[in-house]
Amino acid sequence: MDVRLAVQWTPEAEARFKEIPFFRPAARKKSEKLARELGIQQMVAVSGQATQHLGS
């Protein structure tokens, strides 16, 4: 992987991600792939209320 395309995770985002009970490695890979496609360089934690609003 090109290090310029690496996605960084804030500590809060890492903590929230660890709450995913199943398929964590696959979910992380898919999340980072989407982030790279959208030009997102840093993953941040989003509140549950915000994700419900976004349809997640």
Q: Can you describe what's shown?
A:
The chain has 56 residues and is mainly alpha-helical. It has one domain (3-53): Helicase, Ruva Protein, domain 3 (Orthogonal Bundle), CATH 1.10.8. The chain is 50% helix and 7% strand. The chain has helices spanning 11-17, 24-38, 48-53, and strands at residues 8-9, 42-43. Strands 1-2 form a two-stranded parallel ribbon. The termini are far apart. The mean pLDDT is 78.
Concise overview:
The protein is mainly alpha-helical. 50% of the residues lie in helices and 7% in strands. The protein has three helices and two strands.
List keywords for this structure.
mainly alpha, 56 residues, Helicase, Ruva Protein, domain 3, two-stranded parallel ribbon, 3 helices
List the helices and strands and how they pair.
Blueprint: E1 8-9, H1 11-17, H2 24-38, E2 42-43, H3 48-53
Parallel strand pairs: 1-2
- Under CATH, the topology can be stated as Helicase, Ruva Protein, domain 3
The total of beta strands comes to 2
End-to-end C-alpha gap: 28 Å
Largest sheet: 2 strands, parallel
**What sequence of helices (H) and strands (E) makes up the elements?**
EHHEH
Named at the architecture level, the CATH assignment is Orthogonal Bundle
Question: How many structural domains in the coordinates?
Answer: 1
- The percentage of residues in β strands lies in 5-15%
What is the overall pLDDT average?
A: 78
CATH class category label = Mainly Alpha
Shape: globular
Helix content: 40-55%
Structure classification? mainly alpha
Widest sheet: strand ordering: 1-2
